[in-house]
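dumping this here before i forget
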Amino acid sequence: MLKRVVKSFNPLEVEIAQYLSSETLRSDPRNHTVPVLEIFSVPDDPEATVLVMPLMRRCNNPAWQTIGEVVAFLKQVFEGLQYMHELHVAHRDCVAQNIVYDPRYMYPRMFHPQETDKSFNFKGKARHSTRTACPVMYYFIDFGLSRRYNPEDGPPRERPIRGGDKTVPEFQNWKGDLVDPSPTNIYYRGSLTIVTFYKFKGAEFLGPLVDDMIAADPLQRPTIQEVVCRFDELLKPLDNAKLRSRLPLRGQPEGWVTRWLRDVGHGLRSFRYALLRKSAIPLPPSS
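structure:
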């Protein structure tokens, strides 16, 4: 996966991506930033640099099938965001488009880089397993709007930068004040959870936490440390049956025959995974 970065547009992207992918930080299992394999300049274009990264896949493709798969996704994303905050790095655009996963185990024969639903040789559909059978590691990408801060300079303050999510309350009537980017990152994560998971039945247990994460007042939002702790508390009442339950879409009524067939198919698959001791929260070994 190649990305051309133009210094005049994103002057800090290469530096931050290289820092987060350094050997010392890469060895930490909480690091969910995309590995940078190589960096090279572009001949005859001193403004351009090319980042070489592994081939990844959009976080929501294919769709999650169980509550446990959703939990595994959120757990990794919260963990990765917490790790970046500990390093005094603010992503500032952590929307769904900027979260991907390593598909090598879920897609053992991979897929075509351009037509991702096609096989690598373009002769058929790309065959894949499920996240429960083959747990995946999620990564943040795109550090074009990111910033790294010196803790000795005090709390970070920045002019707002509008990323992929245009609904951030503190950006709507901005009057020129510098803002702390950390609460905005929390809002992005809460907003992403609503857009991505509230369309499924069964995700209601996330409601109290998400409501606080998208509070209109940035000062009322929890810190990422509080988000991680509260999320872990929300998981405690969830048993295996709940975690392995399927995710029907809201607003799309299922006829009783369709629902019965889907329930039976999902139930048999879940029973098989339980016999194989596949975790109901499918986390990769290093997560």
